[in-house]
Amino acid sequence: MPTKKKAAKPSPRPKKKSAVKKPAPKKAAKKAVAPKKVAPKKAAKKTAKKAAGSNTGFNAPLTPSPALADVVGGNPLARTEIIKKIWEYIRKNNLQDKANKRMINADAKLKVLFGGKGQVSMFDLAKIVSQNVK
User: Fold this and answer.
1) How far apart are CA 23 and CA 36, in angstroms?
2) Is residue 86 part of a domain?
């Protein structure tokens, strides 16, 4: 059976035509834009390497005190490396408190470093490191 197409019904209200024509929007004039200056790739790589290898702030090598040297070694290290080595020592010797993970239990080496305290918060580590480096 062939299907018949239905004719569209006329809308009940006829469309009104506006008597006043609106002016077409004006196109914005294109401004001449100067091309961006692109730095050579070699220069960008050199500055990135230079920034990563700079000896300022966190990257400056610091000499640990004798108490800190027992935990991290006697060689000068960056502050970030010192914190990393302290955490390696804590995990290796299972010194993080089981009930409250924010607390660090001190063994003989860390007790000297922590100033005789048996337990220290992990948030105090940065302060302890600052007191034990030159």
Assistant:
1) 37
2) yes
DSSP β-bridge partners for residue 104: 96, 120
SS3 68: helix
With a cut of 80, say whether residue 20 has pLDDT above it: no
Q: How many domains does the chain have?
A: 1
List, for residues 92-115, the tens digit of each pLDDT value: 999 999 999 999 999 999 999 999
Give the separation between CA 132 and CA 119, rounded to whole angstroms: 18
Domain CATH for 124: 1.10.245.10
Question: How many angstroms from the chain centroid is the CA of residue 110?
Answer: 30
Residues whose CB is less than 8 angstroms from the CB of residue 23 and which lie 6 or more positions away in sequence, other chains included: none
> Which are the contacts of 115, defined by CB distance < 8 A and separation ≥ 6?
128
Q: Which residues pair with 121 in a beta bridge?
A: 103
- Is 79 among the domain residues? yes
Q: Could you tell me if residue 5 is inside a domain?
A: no
Residue 89, domain extent: 60-131
> In the predicted model, what is the mean pLDDT of residues 17-45?
64
Indicate whether 126 belongs to any domain.
Answer: yes
Residue 40 tokens, joined: 């050579």
